[in-house]
Design brief:
Elements (H helix, E strand, L loop, with lengths): L2 E5 L2 E4 L4 E8 L7 E7 L6 E6 L6 E3 L7 E6 L4 E6 L8 E9 L3 E4 L3 E6 L1
Parallel strand pairs: 2-11
Antiparallel strand pairs: 1-3, 3-8, 4-5, 4-9, 5-6, 7-8, 9-10, 9-11
């Protein structure tokens, strides 16, 4: 079992920055591929970014490419999402995900990000 807790969400003006953190307990995150997803009101959950086990490979949704950066610190069992140049359309609940084909799929409880225009 892996428990994931997101933090760092909040209210920010357009053009501002926030950094989300996802802290894990229960198992070391090194064994999992990690991702961030988001869900805006009335919309389906969508992929934002992912990072592989070692941090050597990252992937981003086109809508955030060049503005968001995903990273991980396996020693701290934490994954981060640095969000710059935020736009009102980035407003959503952001979820951390840990995924392993053998160990399972886990989600955090979500962190609200609100970007005002």
């Amino acid at each position: 079992q892996v428990q994931l807790v997101e933090s760092g969400g909040g209210l920010v003006q357009a053009g501002g920055s926030l950094r989300l953190s996802c802290a894990a307990s229960g198992r070391t995150l090194y064994r999992y591929s990690m991702g961030w997803f988001r869900q805006a009101p009335g919309k389906e959950r969508e992929f934002v970014a992912s990072i592989n086990y070692s941090g050597s490979i990252t992937s981003y949704a086109d809508s955030v490419k060049g503005r968001f950066t995903i990273s991980r610190d396996n020693a701290k069992n934490t994954v981060y999402l640095q969000m710059n140049s935020l736009k009102p359309e980035d407003t959503a609940v952001y979820y951390c995900n840990a995924r392993s084909p053998t160990l399972g799929d886990y989600w955090g409880q979500g962190a609200q990000v609100t970007v005002s225009s």
